[in-house]
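Aim 2 progress update. The chain analyzed this quarter is reproduced below.
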Amino acid sequence: MVWKRLLAPLLALAVGLFARLGAEFIPQLDEGDLLIEARRLTGAALTESVRTDLNLQKRLREIPEVAQVVARTGAPEVATDPMSLEQSDIYIQLKPRDAWRSGLTKADIAKETAEVLEGSPEVGGAVSQPIQMRTNELVAGIRSDVGVLLYGPDLAELARQGEAFAKVLKQVPGAVDVRVEQVEGLRYLRITPDRNRLARYGLTVEDVNQLTETLAVGHRVGDVLEGERRFGIIVKAAYPFTGDLEPLRALPLRSVTCQVVPLGDVADVEFKTGPAQVSRERQSRRITVEFNVRGRDLLSVVRDAQAATASLALPVGYRAEWGGQFENYLEAKARLTIVVPLALALILFLLWLTFRSMKTGLLIFLNVPFAIIGGVISLWLRDIPFSISAGVGFIALFGVAVLNGLVLVSFARDLEATGLPRLEAMKQAAEGRLRPVLMTALVASLGFIPMALSTAPGAEVQRPLATVVIGGLVSATLLTLFVLPALYTWLSQPKPIAPPPPKTEQVTT
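Predicted structure tokens:
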């Protein structure tokens, strides 16, 4: 029969197309505006941050579609988003779409914005969206779409491995705005006491620590009482730092013989570059290599990135994990692998409960693979990767598809109960239930068409769900009207009864 020759190839086609769809956690929403996460060298002064921000704002205003540019540097008074002075968030408000250049998309504007950022070598960063960046940070702890989390004991080695990962990730198609978390580059004043020289003058390490405390935060030397109130007396060195170490080396220390000894005679005073921050997670130090995904689906980019970085051998005691939206996708996929089979099993159980026949229940359940075929083909035709939104659409599709088969088979069984043969009952059921089946499919399909074609804010999440339901209902309805009646009649045909063997007469004498 025709349905036998079509079912297996169509299922194979759907499996092949699904493997080529790609996947992502949730579709990227179009917020209407852009955001640049600007980063400068660690320890940059506020005046330098303001100067580079103004230069970026002037250059961004030259893009015709940009309406307004506002930069925010450092942390606000309410530190809900703590940042240092070398970090800035530059908000780019775009004009209405009807004022854009003809044929220009938001991706093109983001590309022009990235080119402006690349034209400022003293500033590094990434192009994102305000809500998207905040959501990534709140949900995954990473401001970008994907992050490689490197764990290990030594910050210097982590920084070297991070640079090696970033160099490889920049070659992966679809991975943009690759950057390594800034953990080094801050200058420290290091005072190292020499115990042998201290012993010559009768000094101790505590004397050096007291001088260092006076230089840094102030040393408490006593209290002042005013009635019932007590105030501490703090002595602090009034030294305006100019980059010269000689005044620091000349700071006096008083020995036990009341001899004044310069600090530089008993300690090494020098500047050294050290860590700007130390991030810890899972009882280990951590550094993050972040990147955004643009032009491709999330799963394909991460798979290519994992294959490209597989050749990077980490030292013993170091490990790499993939986080961000990719981690959220894996967690959601794991939940779907439980929810979807559970939903299918529940549908099959309800069908058996209705007909008290597993054969009839499986016959109606055949609508499910046909619905999957239509949903996958529709996603492929519209070039939409699989996402959690599409997964929810498949779950909703299964119920509507099974409902159409249930309507048809139930009516045929009622006609059979009146004494009609199965073939004649199915013919009348197919004719009599044509309108209800079409109405059920059309109502759902027409209701999802605005979601499938919408370009309003938030339509990116609705579009995969609506596309899956519309495409799946088309294939499932065709199965219900053409294949299901033939299959129902074929499965119920009585098996031919073999004729009894001929009787042989026995002659007795």
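The chain has a mean pLDDT of 81. The radius of gyration is 36 Å. These observations will guide the mutagenesis experiments scheduled for the next reporting period.
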